[in-house]
Specification:
Length: 253
């Protein structure tokens, strides 16, 4: 009996020490991110004006944090798994790693059976499965709602683009006790603060020949400029601090 008690105490001390290390801001932390183009790394950053918000996130953290961005353009909760993007992440996860999960933009593509998910059913269960599999590896999931699209009506009102996908992400987070960052809400505030015209700077709006990387010009209200991606990273970091999340200890002062 003494042996079992001793082993039990050793385990408590071991796990207690490990938990303390994960929140002191000095132990190495690895963050994996899964999601769509609004998070993903974009090629040719010296020329390309587009950024995913996770692409510009690392400078906000100290040197103890490593971010491995696995988000891919055009992916939904369905296609990210079906196209084998999730398995390498899952195989790499170690206890104490974080997994940021942000989908929704492409889950709503109701003309594409390879990507579309019903928010009340398959989208919800896909999120739950990512959470469960992350936790099974001893890693820590965090759920995000999608960022807002720049979608103003003629009266200058910013309209919702995501319907029940944001609600379901919030409900899954509540039911499974997962930290939740409502990026749709905060990015709606961001779009509104810049205004109907000013918010174009957060996205990709170029006239023909205005930008050498996009000579034909573009009016893209979903994807992000360097400014837009940076502003969203700032929002996330500020929300980490507000929620007093353990990762806030790794944010640069």
């Amino acid at each position: 009996m003494k042996i079992y008690k001793t082993l039990f105490l050793v385990l408590i001390l071991a796990f207690g020490c490990k938990s303390a290390q994960t929140v002191d801001g000095n132990s190495p932390v690895v963050i994996y991110t899964i999601g769509d183009s609004t998070m993903a790394n974009k090629p040719n950053p010296n020329e390309n004006p587009e950024r995913g918000w996770v692409q510009v996130l690392s400078p906000f953290f100290n040197e103890k944090v490593t971010i491995k961005n696995h988000a891919v353009n055009g992916r939904s909760t369905r296609s990210f798994r079906d196209l084998k993007h999730w398995q390498p992440v899952l195989d790499s996860l170690q206890p104490g790693n974080y997994v940021f999960i942000q989908f929704g933009h492409n889950d709503g593509k109701d003309t594409d059976p390879t990507r579309y998910t019903n928010p009340q059913t398959s989208y919800r269960h896909n999120l739950m499965r990512y959470v469960e599999e992350t936790r099974a590896k001893g890693a820590i999931p965090i759920l995000f709602s999608s960022i807002a699209r720049r979608k103003f009506n003629e009266q200058g009102v910013l309209l919702d683009s995501h319907g029940n996908y944001t609600l379901q992400a919030r409900l899954v987070a509540q039911e499974m006790n997962v930290p939740f960052f409502d990026m749709q809400y905060y990015t709606e505030l961001l779009e509104e603060s810049y205004g109907v015209e000013g918010s174009k700077k957060l996205h990709l709006h170029f006239a023909p020949n205005e930008n050498s990387y996009i000579p034909k010009g573009i009016e893209d209200n979903t994807h992000l400029s360097v400014l837009g991606a940076t502003e969203i990273s700032k929002i996330f970091v500020n929300e980490l601090k507000r929620q007093k999340h353990p990762l806030a200890k790794y944010v640069k002062e």
